[in-house]
Design brief:
alpha/beta; three-stranded antiparallel β-sheet
Length: 452
């Protein structure tokens, strides 16, 4: 998300109507080249948890969609020299390609209106250092220009907080600057220019998780794809993060996965009279295990948003336990298996809202409370925002007509959710009082904000 040249940001709706030539590109004959970079292990600024995992997931996804990867895999934790070499190698390989795609996850900063991607060894002390220690996104764009590609895609999951702000390298505003997309180019930002995107708390950023799942869907053209990604991220973050697209007119219609009707037809034997009356059967989706990382990530997120925690209180993954609890609730056999059928059911469930949350950090004696959010994750993030720098790992989240209450004494505490705030208060006091000390309510609220 580089150089802050003022250019027009073209809305997806307008792009769908202008500058397009009818007809899908023949995916089987396309030469698709991708450079995927993920930087997490920063040496001089705050490391990031998820970019290398995000890059690994994107590399696997793109490889499965016919992209040849520069270096054969995701390029992880690159220093400045390795990043320069990877970008230059990318420029050589995209010559004569049909589609060139650059994906980056990691720290990215806006300095003096220009956007820079941050190698893991960057350590600037003044603005004059950035050109030598960071990678200007315009360098990536120039590698694509003149290559003969019909479509260039730049994907930047790099709109996190400026890690060098304390050193005086202050961006004019948070996040990255908007850029003018050169001819035949689409630039996708994890969030709006000037805003800050989330790194994610479940192994992947909200943006990359949505992107990896969406580009596998057949029949979505490139604009529909990024529109669906934007809607998914907006929904998941409760409106806190809204991806953004800048594009010039694109010649032709590009699909990551072509529409099903464009798939090659396979000749099948004609059924005989005995079998003609029997309807064709598809494999039982409840017996088809999910092994795709992006789909497993989606399943985990959907379980979380329906209050079936895929992690234990100490942060370890326990997807089997969460699936079993969901299966018991919806009267399925409690196998604990992650299957396509289970994901299909979760996709068909209505989103739960509104959400409220109460969080507590016993070690630091900090707590926070939130209400009236569109998603569980947004409610928890809001509540934990009240904890400051302290960790508040204990979470009670509730939705719909449920209410939560937090009771505490000098020996014990309890977080309880019930239908109705008074019932929640009473239950919290009873649970807390089992330690033999009188307790008091320090916070209570219903998911819709009532009962405070």
């Amino acid at each position: 998300m580089r150089r802050g040249l003022l250019g027009r940001i073209v809305t997806l709706a307008a792009l769908a109507l202008a500058g397009l030539v009818a007809g899908a590109w023949p995916a089987a004959a396309e030469k698709r080249i991708a450079l995927v970079v993920g930087n997490s292990a920063y040496k001089n600024v705050t490391p990031l948890d998820n970019p290398t995992r995000d890059a690994g997931m994107m590399a696997e996804t793109l490889s499965g969609l016919g992209f040849a990867l520069v270096g054969g895999r995701a390029q992880l934790d690159l220093d400045k020299s390795a990043m320069d070499a990877a970008v230059q190698n990318f420029g050589r390989q995209v010559q004569g390609a049909d589609v060139a795609l650059f994906y980056y996850a990691g720290h990215g900063v806006q300095i003096a209106g220009s956007n820079y991607l941050v190698p893991v060894n960057a350590n600037p002390t003044r603005e004059a250092d950035v050109d030598f220690q960071m990678t200007d996104v315009n360098l990536v764009l120039r590698q694509m220009q003149g290559s003969g590609t019909r479509l260039n895609i730049v994907i930047l999951d790099a709109c996190r907080n400026n890690p060098f702000g304390a050193r005086g390298l202050r961006a004019s505003e948070g996040g990255l600057a908007q850029m003018r997309a050169p001819d035949g180019t689409l630039i996708s930002y994890a969030t709006q220019p000037g805003n800050v995107a989330q790194d994610g708390s479940d192994g992947h950023s909200p943006y990359t998780k949505a992107l990896a799942a969406t580009i596998r869907q057949a029949g979505l053209d490139v604009f529909q794809t990024f529109n669906q990604v934007g809607l998914a991220v907006k929904r998941q973050t409760g409106g806190a993060q809204q991806p953004w697209v800048s594009s010039s007119p694109i010649d032709g219609t590009f699909y990551f996965v072509p529409p099903a009707q464009n798939a090659p037809q396979v000749a099948t034997a004609q059924p005989d009279a005995k079998t003609a009356a029997t309807p064709n059967l598809r494999a039982d989706p409840d017996r088809v295990p999910i092994r795709d990382p992006a789909l497993l990530s989606e399943l985990s997120e959907r379980l979380y948003e329906h209050n079936f925690d895929p992690e234990t209180s100490d942060g370890r993954s326990d997807l089997t336990r969460a699936i079993t609890k969901l299966q018991e609730k919806i009267a399925m056999a409690p196998t604990g298996e992650a299957t396509e059928g289970l994901l299909m059911r979760l996709r068909g469930m209505d989103d739960l809202k509104p959400w409220g949350s109460i969080v507590y950090g016993p070690d630091g004696d900090k707590w926070g409370m939130s209400w009236n959010h569109a998603s569980r994750r947004a409610a928890v993030a809001d509540a934990r925002g009240n904890c400051g720098s302290a960790k508040c790992p204990v979470e009670l989240s509730f939705y719909g007509n449920r209410c939560g209450a937090f009771a505490i004494s000098d020996k014990s505490w309890s977080l309880v959710a019930r239908d109705g705030v008074q019932r929640a208060r009473e239950a919290a006091l009873d649970e807390c009082g089992k330690a033999g000390k009188a307790c008091r309510i320090i916070g209570a609220v219903c998911a819709d904000g009532s009962g405070r």
